[in-house]
UniProtKB/TrEMBL annotation:
GO molecular function: metallopeptidase activity
Family classification: Belongs to the peptidase U62 family.
Domain Metalloprotease TldD/E C-terminal: 228-436
All copies of domain Metalloprotease TldD/E N-terminal, residue ranges: 23-87
Biological process, per Gene Ontology: proteolysis
InterPro entries hit by this protein: Metalloprtase-TldD/E_C, Metalloprtase-TldD/E_cen_dom, Metalloprtase-TldD/E_N, PmbA, TldD/PmbA_N, TldD/PmbA_sf
Designated name of the protein: Peptidase C69
A Pfam family it matches: PmbA_TldD_3rd
Highest taxon listed in the record's lineage: Bacteria
GO cellular component, one term: cytosol
Domain Metalloprotease TldD/E central, residue spans: 115-221
Length: 438
């Protein structure tokens, strides 16, 4: 981090000497190890080491950007010259420029996100093989494997700008995954499981990952059709996260200033049930996306995105905020650690409360339009009858309109999937169109 910090300062000095009124630079170095095995044999072992520099300069309100993967002095000098040359030929943009100087972070803490794993290739292979063997050996109906993998990475980055701000961050990420196939012929089904964490101590054991993958794969065997109709739809936690993602896309600054969002001009309005709440917690210890500053150096703060079902604010960086005549929310680069409040215990209790309907455990396609709010996606999961899982279902389409779907949410579970920066449990939508058999 010290080396990258020194290089960042040198780049900013070069920008000033060439006449730039403002400049910002991001530098990063990443290293990782990835292995994949299949059917007890090693398929790939890959060790990576990447670096990058992204530079943006401003001549008044004219902007130029350039990047390089070479940290040598000559390459950095050429990158600065190219960015400045571009800026001199661009049109002025009234919204261009660094974030406001008074918004720069001053409390540059770390949040327990640095946990290097001294994992060599042999150990990584052994972990992946152990996980796959546990899954394949769980049941005779497990007929094949799509493979297992182990992954570990470390990343160091520095952001600096001509306000005098310089922030350095470091983080780690580790994961273990297994994908299995059960059945034979046209009756084959595939499913998977994975564990991921910032610290290897927080990963599930390889045997647990393999057995969970086997359990999920086996329960998808022998799917049966259901009739087309309107039903309650319960999204499992890892699928519920996508609904929150659609909401974030609709309240992001880029969509709003382009007037390409179904939630345009909805700040301060009811968009979810009165009990619904989403909070952003960027300083959460060991949070997957904890940070003291955003991608522009603006200090991050705890805040509510939705309270009592009312949209409290948008998700803005300084450029989109200026385009909208608003103020940055410290979200350049995205949100940090969203917590969706629960009002129910978990998936099993929510299924019992639902009584009869569809549990979605897989979604396919990209059929969510955040411009119009139309929603239509392929789905698979389980039919629930009498509050219990009756049988698996697949080749379905679920459809609705996101504004109505959000208001029709009846429950959010406490069974949170911790493998993402969006912490949300199962979500029950009271009614959606489900296309199955005619």
């Amino acid at each position: 981090m010290d080396r990258l910090s020194g290089l960042a300062r040198e780049v900013l000095d070069q920008c000033a000497r060439l006449g730039a009124s403002q400049a910002e630079v991001t530098m990063n170095e990443d290293a990782g190890l990835s292995v994949n095995v299949r059917m007890g044999e090693v398929e790939t072992v890959e060790r990576t080491r990447d670096r990058g520099v992204g530079l943006t300069v401003y001549f008044g309100q004219r902007k130029g950007s350039a990047s390089t993967a070479d940290l040598q002095p000559d390459s950095l000098r050429a990158t600065v010259e190219q960015a400045c040359a571009i800026a001199r030929h661009t049109e002025a943009d009234p919204a261009a420029g660094l974030a406001d100087a008074e918004r720069m972070a001053t409390d540059l803490r770390e949040f327990d996100g640095w946990h290097p794993w001294p994992l060599d290739a042999d150990r990584a292979i052994a972990l992946a093989l152990e996980a796959e063997a546990a899954g394949r050996g769980a049941d005779a109906r497990i007929s094949n494997s799509d493979g297992a993998g182990a992954y570990s990475s470390e990343s160091v980055s520095v952001y600096a700008n001509s306000h005098g701000f310089l922030g350095a961050e470091r983080g780690t990420s580790h994961s273990l995954s297994v994908s299995l196939i059960a059945g034979s012929g046209d009756g084959m089904q595939r499913d998977y499981w994975y564990t991921s964490a910032l610290s290897p101590d927080d990963l599930e054991a390889p045997v647990q990952v393999g057995r969970r993958a086997a359990e999920r794969t086996l329960r998808r065997l022998d799917p049966r059709p259901i009739r087309t109709g309107e039903y309650p739809v319960l999204f499992a936690p890892e699928m519920a996260r996508s609904l929150i993602g659609h909401l974030l896309g609709a309240v992001s600054g880029g969509a709003l200033y382009r007037r390409a969002s179904f939630l345009l001009d909805h700040a301060g309005k009811q968009i979810l049930p009165p009990w619904f709440a989403i909070s952003e917690r960027p300083h959460k210890p060991r949070g997957i996306r904890s940070s003291a500053f955003d991608a522009e150096g603006v200090a991050t703060v705890d805040s509510d995105l939705v309270r009592d079902g009312i949209l409290q604010r948008y998700v803005l960086g300084s450029y989109s905020a200026r385009k909208l005549g608003l103020r940055s929310t410290g979200n350049a680069g995205g949100v940090n650690n969203l917590d969706v409040a629960a009002n129910a215990s978990g998936l099993e209790d929510m299924a019992r409360a639902m009584g009869r309907g569809l549990l979605v455990t897989e979604l396919m396609g990209q059929g969510a339009n955040t411009v119009t709010g139309d929603y239509s996606r392929g789905a698979a999961g389980f039919w629930v009858e009498g509050g219990e899982l009756a049988h698996p279902v697949d080749e379905l389409t679920i459809a609705g309109r996101l504004p109505e779907m959000f208001l029709a949410i009846e429950a959010v579970g406490a069974d949170v999937d911790r493998r993402s920066h969006v912490s949300v449990g199962s979500i029950l939508v009271g009614r959606m169109m489900v296309a199955g058999e005619a």
